[in-house]
Specification:
It contains 14 helices and 25 strands. It is an alpha+beta fold. The radius of gyration is 22 Å and the shape is globular. The structure holds ligand EPZ.
Length: about 425
């Protein structure tokens, strides 16, 4: 078993480069089966969800050639439809995009129910609503989503009941090769939606309106291959910004798009951090003494839900009482128990957490209950007094490329250890 071990208290100084966005990479990689030409995707994060997406493509018959640690050539010429192994697709939510991609290429899809972090119920009714608006028939059989459009998909109009990233992505992927025009109303506006649209348009698709609430897709006959570079990961960048705010120090964060981070920067400045922006860089400095703040997560351009646990970890030691309201997920508070083991004073009522700032957290053995909760444990451990051991770090590796190495380079006392059992600890790095 692996653990991350942190001896807290060190401020962070130096420079860190941000990788490509996980939530852009997954749809772009899976959508690459829409063309029989080769695609080269650059600036991928080296994370386990990307490795899993490539394994899924390989299992479908795609040729996968890693060109560098962060770029891959995908040859989908011989990709075949059919059942994608349950044990693969059930490991992440992003595999749901295979439904749109297989429907788009083959007119049929047979995909295991998608997995992903546990935030309570994670329905796919809006995905189904969109596919049915395009003439597909959807059944749920033995834990699989079975979709068919024997005459191929036709353009349709869908008005989502709620803003949903996944369904917006899935319908966009399915619509690019459909016969006719598709309109997605009440669409999600996240930067990774725009990145996917840019990738598909680079392959010859005709998509307009990505990044707004109405996306229009005119179906085309075929897509050609392309070379595409993934946008920087705003949540990875925000996570490092939160870490510096909590520990104190000064860090230059490179390869970012400051516009995507505006609401995170504004909130951290409200709490007392100082932030300077350049074209592709943000420099954040903090004394570590922060003011309380309120956070309400909403779909983009609102405060990102994927920064919620990390910000709660920062607010644990901010002076005063903070309120964090989760506006997207049914239950994203499973990290709270773990922070309480470190001395945090948090109470949760429904979708709202009330955080009373304490002087310092104390290191403790905690679990990474999901991806962003794991990042929150790291931030709390960096700022805490004493030793924190984080288990369940596989969930962290799903979405952060070398977070231990990057933080160590910024002066953190952090390492990964392998424990064959509780007694035997061998230092990994
Ligand atoms: C994506 O999940 C992200 N995952 C999540 O990031 C992120 O939290 C979420 O979008 C919101 O930004 C990936 O991109 C792989 P949704 P997704 O569909 O697509 C409801 C991370 O940490 N809903 O936007 O599953 C749903 O229950 C991960 O990187 C329906 O009701 O999220 C939720 O309340 C965690 N019916 C809300 O919409 C549907 O058919 C938003 O879900 C679909 C969604």
């Amino acid at each position: 078993m692996e653990k991350i071990v942190i001896n807290g208290g060190a401020p962070l100084y130096g420079e860190v480069a941000i990788n490509g966005a996980k939530n852009a990479a997954l749809p772009i990689l899976l959508a690459s089966i829409l063309t029989r030409d080769k695609c080269v995707i650059e600036h991928l994060p080296a994370i386990s969800d990307v490795a899993l997406a490539l394994e899924i493509l390989r299992s479908m018959g795609a040729g996968i050639k890693m060109l560098t640690r962060t770029s891959v050539e995908i040859d989908a010429t011989h990709v075949r439809g059919g059942i994608v192994p349950y044990e693969l697709v059930s490991k992440m939510r992003g595999s749901s995009y295979l439904i749109g991609a297989e429907l788009g290429r083959f007119g049929a899809a047979h995909v295991g129910w998608p997995g992903g972090c546990d935030f309570g119920v994670r329905p796919i009714d809006q995905h189904i609503k969109g596919f049915e608006a395009m003439g597909a028939k959807i059944d749920i059989e033995n834990g699989y989503i079975v979709a068919s459009a024997p005459d191929g998909l036709r353009g349709g109009q869908v008005y989502f009941d709620c803003v949903t990233v996944g369904a917006t992505i899935n319908i966009m992927i399915a619509a690019v090769l459909a016969k006719g025009n598709t309109v997605i109303d009440n669409a999600a506006r996240e930067p990774h939606i725009v990145d996917l649209a840019n990738f598909l348009n680079t392959c010859g698709a005709k998509i307009t309106g990505a990044g707004t609430g109405v996306i229009r897709i005119s179906g085309v006959e075929r897509l050609h291959g392309c070379t595409y570079t993934i946008i920087p990961d705003m949540i990875e960048a925000g996570t490092y910004m939160a870490a510096v705010a909590a520990t104190g120090g000064k860090v230059r964060i490179t390869n970012v798009i400051p516009k995507h981070l505006e609401i995170i920067s504004a909130k951290l400045e409200e709490m007392g951090a100082l932030i300077e922006e350049e074209d592709e860089t943000i420099t954040i400095s903090s004394t570590g003494d922060l003011r309380r703040a309120n956070i309400k997560t909403l779909p983009y351009p609102g405060f990102p839900t994927d920064m919620h646990p990390q910000m709660s970890a920062v607010l644990c030691c901010a002076k005063g009482t903070s309120i964090v309201s989760e506006g997207v997920w049914e239950n994203r508070f499973r990290y709270v128990d773990e922070l309480m083991k470190m001395g945090a004073d948090i109470s949760v009522d429904g979708r709202t957490a009330t955080i009373q700032g304490v002087e310092r957290l104390s290191g403790a053995p905690v679990r990474a209950v999901d991806l962003r909760a794991g990042a929150a444990m790291i931030i709390a451990g960096l700022a805490a007094e004493g030793r924190t051991e984080i288990s369940g770090i596989g969930s962290i590796e799903r979405g952060y490329d070398d977070i231990v190495g990057k933080l160590k380079a910024l002066g953190a006392n952090i390492k990964t250890i392998y424990c064959s059992d509780e007694n035997e600890l061998r230092e990994a790095q």
